[in-house]
Amino acid sequence: MSSIRWNVMKDAAELSTWLLMGAGLQSLLVLILPLYVAIVPTCLFLLFRIATVFLIAQGIMKNPRLENVTVGKSWAVPPSQDGSLDGPPAQSSVVLFVVGARSNHPLGMSASDFQELRKNFLAMWDEAEANRELYGYLGKTALLVSAELGSGNALMTMSYWKSIEHLHAFARGPAHMKGWDWIIKATKNSPSVGFMHEVYSSPGGHWQNVYYNFRPFGLAQTKNLVQGGKDAFSGATELVGARIETKGPRMGGMYARLGRKEL
Predict the structure, then answer these.
(1) H-helix or E-strand containing 199?
(2) Distance between CA 166 and CA 95 in Å, rounded?
(3) Which residues does 23 contact at the CB level (< 8 Å), separation at least 6?
(4) Least buried of 13, 73, 114, 230, by fewest C-beta within 10 Å?
(5) Shortest CA distance to 194 belongs to which of 126, 141, 140, 148?
């Protein structure tokens, strides 16, 4: 099971529910096993967790949370339309498409309606990935889980596109149309499923990013499908990812990253 799916499942219930389930399981072990046998696994696992945190905090063990983290200040240079990473900063337009789903069911994201919605979402992203050039699809973030309630009852994804026209072409595609029809019917038939989206269109010179001790996220995860790759006459296509910069003139401030002169 992927870490993303595990985190989503973990957040599907409140913390108190998981604690009660653990307490119930421990009580059952105490009833059917000798006391010293029943409590040994729990004590050993707790000791292991405490020791691991201590060793990581002391720098003795590698911190897994720092994997793929760019330490210090950085910013991402998304590839231009031709795949170049050396042009002026923020030269291309970017469309941000925010889409989210919410479960209002007592079973949370485990409810059957939400699982059906999830299948439609996955089909949409698979179609976007398979037709990057047609839809101008640049990439998306991993699932973001809402924490407004005691359990994660809502998911959101931020995706990036070349233009409004490209995003509209995706919206008219078969996977999105099928999912959209299902959403309209589901939200009319029951309030247990919620859905939202927001669209922001930013022309060149009107967007920028900066990261401190962060993994590649958002614009830093975007990729552009370009013709030719290293050999412009080959006719092949190549996915070119964003470049992460940690030094240089564009690290000076917001206006430098926007490609403008400071006022």
Answers:
(1) strand 193-202
(2) 9
(3) none
(4) 230
(5) 148
